[in-house]
Amino acid sequence: MKKTLALALVATTSLSSAAFAEGIDQFRIGILGGENAQDRMNSYACLQEYASEALGVETKLFAPADYNGVIQGLLGGTIDMAWLGASSYAATYLQDPEAVEPVLVKVNLDGSIGYHSIGFARVDSGVTSLDDMEGKVFGFGDPNSTSGYLIPSIEIPQYKDGITMESGDYFGEVKFTGGHEQTIVAVANGDIDGGVTWADGQGNWEDGYNSGALRKAVDAGLIDMNDLVEIWKSAVIPEGPVVLRQALPEEVKVTMTELVDGLYEADPDCAYGVAAGDTLGFQPVTHDTYISIVEARKAKIGG
């Protein structure tokens, strides 16, 4: 099935590997943080293989330690494609509107393209809502994460007067853990009292919902969701886009867009890993979907 998909996609472009090689000598996929680097690489290994066959050049995977590593790679031309969060896309766009173009967005099982920032704590902590977090340690993921920082930093202060994102105001301490998996593990281990991560908010809590960082952590055996409780949920956030570097040859962009767009139908297991859980695959998206996030990012963080 793998070979059939890759070769079919090459055929639809009516281009030879040699033609691709005239424009690029390799293709580089950046993988945003969220889980440890090796698990990220494993989840994308199938896409790496497909891309190499479809493009006729070597495909390399890059899993930088933080979100900014992917952002800077796209801006500097050392990464060609990535699935960004909406805030990371906004950060890239604000630094260079011509650097990347959004092409696809993940589709939930109900056909929607949104997700949520989820606040959570340990069941045995006695914390059941943000009202119980006063004076306790609260964890964010990465400063460039939409659900792990931008949206909760805007919406949580609206939950209750007196809540800020500064240590010692409402929360006893506010920490950046480094990523979604780190936040989940820190809460599960009792290293912090509560934190935020991302999920589609659909399906069952005990499964980690249908897709997202909680689902990936359950799949990896890192947590038992019965040990955790949801304490807050954001409004719907537009799912981040798969982006391609605008300077790539048009044929490469078309081929990679078709490849990812057809991944769910051709190889559901591969799509599960790439999309962080159960989905209906991907569908086309444009910059217009992210205008509100770009403005929120500009107002809250700047470029």
From TrEMBL:
GO terms for biological process: organic phosphonate transport; transmembrane transport. It holds the Pfam family Phosphonate-bd. It comes from the Bacteria. Residues 1-21 form the signal peptide. Keywords: Signal. SUPFAM superfamilies: Periplasmic binding protein-like II (SSF53850). One of its GO terms (cellular component) is ATP-binding cassette (ABC) transporter complex. Belongs to the phosphate/phosphite/phosphonate binding protein family. This is Phosphonate transport system substrate-binding protein. It comes from Cognatiyoonia sediminum.
